[in-house]
Amino acid sequence: SQQGEEDPQALSIQEGENATMNCSYKTSINNLQWYRQNSGRGLVHLILIRSNEREKHSGRLRVTLDTSKKSSSLLITASRAADTASYFCATSAGAGSYQLTFGKGTKLSVIP
Amino acid sequence: EAQVTQNPRYLITVTGKKLTVTCSQNMNHEYMSWYRQDPGLGLRQIYYSMNVEVTDKGDVPEGYKVSRKEKRNFPLILESPSPNQTSLYFCASRGGFGFYTDTQYFGPGTRLTVL
């Protein structure tokens, strides 16, 4: 079942601007991950944030997690044309947490 | 190089003709899974396997079978494909699970068309 819901569905920005994508989920989670997918290709892991963490950075990526609001945001700073892709959040929940449930994604277009 | 491979990458077939999509990983991962991706529906899990000979249904298992006879391989079988199984399929593997779930690695995808 779909757990994460990304917002917006599509985002178009100019190169150099920051891009912010949001993810909301419904049940308690162990961790939340963000993935990137270039058109028609496999997903690539970007960053993982655990339920006891509030913020995490990796290069130009900043992820926040608010478990009280059941939401996360992914910020890409100083965007580049190469950042054009779809971005998905995935949540790991439950005692076994062996399933990752993906949202429907945000399609980001970075215009040169 | 750590990777998940899938074959074939593209497949056009006809209704009812059995097919198998192979998946192999070289990372000695215990956990493997199959997803399908459809426009507007995102990624939906078909089946997953926590180890050799251990498989379980995901969210959309109808019309699919899997097997896990070896740790590295996790083939997806469509015994009698139908047009509604036209989709983009991804295999994925992961080394750990639990609170500190490891990164999930995805294969390049198999684009299947069933006529």
Task: Describe the 3D structure.
The complex is a heterodimer of chains A (112) and B (115). In chain A, strands 2, 4, 5, 9, 10 and 11 form a six-stranded mixed sheet that branches. Chain A contains no helices and eleven strands. Chain A is mainly β. In chain B, a hairpin with a 2-residue loop joins strand 5 (42-51) and strand 6 (54-57). Chain B contains no helices and eleven strands. Chain B has strands at 4-7, 10-13, 19-25, 31-38, 42-51, 54-57, 65-66, 76-78, 87-94, 104-106, 110-114. With 115 residues, chain B is an all-beta fold. Chain B starts with a strand and ends with a strand. In chain B, strands 2, 4, 5, 6, 9, 10 and 11 form a seven-stranded mixed sheet that branches. Chain B has a four-stranded antiparallel sheet with strand order 1-3-8-7, with no helix packed on it. The mean pLDDT of chain B is 92. The interface between A and B is medium-sized, with 27 and 31 residues.
Order of helices and strands of chain B: EEEEEEEEEEE
Q: Using only CA atoms, what is the Rg of chain A?
A: 13 Å
In helices, the fraction of residues of chain B equals under 10%
Helix/strand class of chain A:
mainly beta
Low-confidence stretches of chain A: none
Shape of chain B: globular
Q: Give the strand content of chain A.
A: over 45%
Q: How is the biggest beta sheet of chain B arranged?
A: 7 strands, mixed
Instruction: Please write the string of helix (H) and strand (E) elements of chain A.
Output: EEEEEEEEEEE
Strand runs of chain B, count? 11
Biggest interface and residues each: A-B, 27 and 31 residues
> What's the story with the biggest beta sheet of chain A?
6 strands, mixed
